[in-house]
Hints:
Blueprint: H1 2-14, H2 24-55, H3 57-66
Helix pairs in contact: 1-2, 2-3
Amino acid sequence: DLMWAITHLTEELEARDNLSALPEADRKHLTGDINRFYDRLVVEWLIYAEHLKAHYPYFYSLLLRTHPFQKEPSAVVKA
């Protein structure tokens, strides 16, 4: 589903000449496409994180410190 979502979103964006001058209905449509892609991406990211936790705890440790869902990601290990 992730691949279909990004393929569809890419095609939708490439089919438009000017993204800054879209009517409201089209912006809402694209927002739905972006949300569909993002939702599927988050699911895959969580599966990836679980895999790292189970098999590569040192990579998982880095992921916990640098993931994009926190306010100030940093690779620096803090006490």
